[in-house]
Design brief:
- By secondary structure, this protein is of the alpha/beta class.
- It is built from twelve helices and 13 strands.
- The chain is about 50% helix and about 15% strand.
- The strands form three sheets. A five-stranded mixed beta sheet has the order 2-4-5-7-6. Strands 10-9-11-12-13 form a five-stranded parallel beta sheet, sandwiched between helices.
- The longest helix has about 80 residues.
- The chain is extended.
C-alpha cells in the first residue's frame, strides 16, 4: 500500500468515526427524550390517579358534614328541651362551618388557577383571631387531643387579611388532626427580626411525615394524605399559595413518631401593646350566634325593605331575621322588583343577582335610573371578584355573599337606613 492509498484509508476511517459520533450523539439525545417522555407519562398517570382519589375523598368530605346537618336538623325538631336543641344547634353550626370552609377551598383553588386570588387587609387583633380559631375547632378535636395556644401578655394588632390567615391556620390544624391520635396540637405566633417579621406556627405530637414525602407536601393532588385517604389534597397547597401571595414563605419540619411543625413567616405591619381598635365581640364568632331583637313596634314607624329573591328558603331566612326590624316586601324576580319599587318606594332593596324573568343587575340599573338615592344591596351566591365588580357597575351600593353572616346583614342595612 502506497502513501496515497494509506491517506485515503485514514480519511475514510475519520469520516466513519465522525458519522459514528454523530449517530451516538443522536442516540443519546433520543434516549434522553425517551426518558423525559417516560417520566412525563408516569407523572400524568400519577396525576390521574391522584385526581381520582381527590374526587373520591372530596365526596366523602362533603357528605360527612351534610349527613350531620340533615340528621340533626330532623332530630332537633323532635327534641323536648331547650338544652338539647342548643346542643344539636351547635353541632349543626359546626358542620355548616366545616362545609363552608371546604367549598371555599375549592373555590380558592379555582381562583388561584385563574390568577384571581386577592388579599384584603384590615387591622386584626391576633389574640382575638387565635381565640376564634380555638372555638372553630371546639367540636372537631377529640378528647384525646389537647389544642392549645399561649396567649401573649401584650396585644398585637396586625394589618393583614384575617380570612386568609384564619384559612391557613384552619388547614394546618386540620392536617395535624389527621396525623395525631392523641397528644397536643399547639399553635400561635411570635415576633422576629426586631418586629420586622412575624412567625406563625402549628405544631403537633403526631405520627410525623417521612422525609421522602416532604418534597410534595405542598403540591395539589399529589400529597401522601390524598393517596392514603386522609384528606383531599388541597389544604396544604392552598396554604403555600396564600402565604406566598401575602409576601411570606412556609416551611415544614417533621420526625417520625415525634411530630410535625409548620411555620410560616410574614412581614409584620401593626402595633404591639397598643390600645385595642378592634370592635370584635363574642357575637362575631363563627360559631353560635345569638340575636336579641326588640318587640315589633308600630308598623307605620318601621322602614320598608324590598327583598328581591326567587328562592323561598332564602327569603324565609331574611324574613325571620328582619321581620321585627322592618316592613318587608317580597319580589320573586327582577320585573316584580322594578314594579314594586315604583309603587311602594321602599327605603332599601336587597337584590338577588340570578332571578327569572329579569336578573338583579338589569333590575338594579332600571331602579337606579328612576331613583339613584335608594340603596341597593346585592345578596348573591355568585361572589367572585368579577361578580362584585359587575354588581357595583350596575349600581349596587354594597355586596354581601351567600351564605351571609346574620350580623353582617343587619349591620349593613342599619348603616344605610338605621333600625
Amino acid at each position: 500500500m502506497n502513501q496515497d492509498d494509506y491517506e485515503v484509508l485514514l480519511q475514510k476511517f475519520a469520516d466513519v468515526s465522525y458519522r459514528l459520533s454523530l449517530a451516538n450523539a443522536k442516540l443519546e439525545e433520543a434516549n434522553k427524550k425517551l426518558k423525559e417522555y417516560e417520566e412525563k407519562a408516569l407523572q400524568a398517570e400519577k396525576a390521574s390517579k391522584m385526581k381520582s382519589l381527590f374526587l373520591a375523598n372530596m365526596s366523602h368530605e362533603i357528605r360527612t358534614p351534610l349527613n350531620a346537618i340533615e340528621g340533626f336538623s330532623r332530630v332537633m325538631v323532635e327534641t323536648e328541651t331547650l338544652q338539647e336543641r342548643m346542643n344539636y344547634m351547635e353541632i349543626i353550626e359546626s358542620n355548616n362551618h366545616r362545609l363552608l370552609s371546604l367549598v371555599n377551598e375549592i373555590l380558592d383553588l379555582s381562583r388561584v388557577e385563574a390568577g384571581e386570588i386577592s388579599i384584603k387587609k384590615s387591622n386584626v387583633d391576633l389574640n382575638n383571631m387565635m381565640a376564634d380559631i380555638k372555638q372553630l375547632f371546639k367540636f372537631r378535636c377529640p378528647d384525646t387531643i389537647h389544642l392549645k395556644w399561649d396567649k401573649p401578655s401584650v396585644q398585637v394588632m396586625m394589618s393583614t387579611d384575617e380570612d386568609k390567615l384564619t384559612q391557613v391556620f384552619s388547614n394546618l390544624i386540620s392536617n395535624s388532626l389527621k396525623h395525631t391520635v392523641k397528644g397536643t396540637i399547639e399553635y400561635g405566633y411570635r415576633l422576629v427580626d426586631n418586629h420586622a417579621s412575624i412567625q406563625f406556627f402549628v405544631s403537633d405530637t403526631g405520627s410525623g411525615i417521612e422525609s421522602k414525602f416532604l418534597g410534595d407536601i405542598f403540591n395539589a393532588y399529589v400529597s401522601k394524605d390524598a393517596e392514603q385517604n386522609k384528606g383531599y389534597g388541597l389544604g396544604l397547597a392552598l396554604c403555600k399559595i396564600i402565604v406566598e401571595k401575602m409576601g411570606g414563605h412556609i416551611e415544614v419540619e417533621s420526625h417520625i413518631n415525634v411530630g410535625t411543625t409548620f411555620t410560616f413567616t410574614l412581614p409584620f405591619h401593626g402595633s404591639v401593646g397598643g390600645v385595642s381598635t378592634s370592635n370584635r365581640s363574642a357575637a362575631s364568632s363563627p360559631m353560635m350566634r345569638t340575636l336579641r331583637v326588640s318587640t315589633r313596634g308600630d308598623d307605620n314607624q318601621l322602614k320598608t325593605v324590598l327583598v328581591a329573591e326567587d328562592e323561598e328558603s332564602n327569603y324565609e331566612l331574611v324574613r325571620i331575621v328582619l321581620q321585627k326590624r322592618y316592613n318587608l316586601l317580597h319580589a320573586h324576580n327582577g320585573i316584580e322588583a322594578v314594579t314594586m319599587n315604583e309603587e311602594e318606594h321602599p327605603d332599601l332593596i336587597l337584590m338577588d343577582i340570578r332571578m327569572p324573568e329579569m336578573n338583579g343587575l338589569d333590575a338594579t340599573r332600571i331602579i337606579k335610573e328612576v331613583n339613584n338615592k335608594t340603596p341597593v344591596i346585592a345578596l348573591s351566591a355568585y361572589a367572585f371578584d368579577e361578580n362584585i365588580r359587575e354588581a357595583k357597575a350596575a349600581g349596587c351600593d354594597e355586596f354581601l355573599a351567600k351564605p351571609f353572616r346574620v350580623e353582617d346583614l343587619i349591620e349593613t342595612i342599619a348603616r344605610y337606613i338605621g333600625e
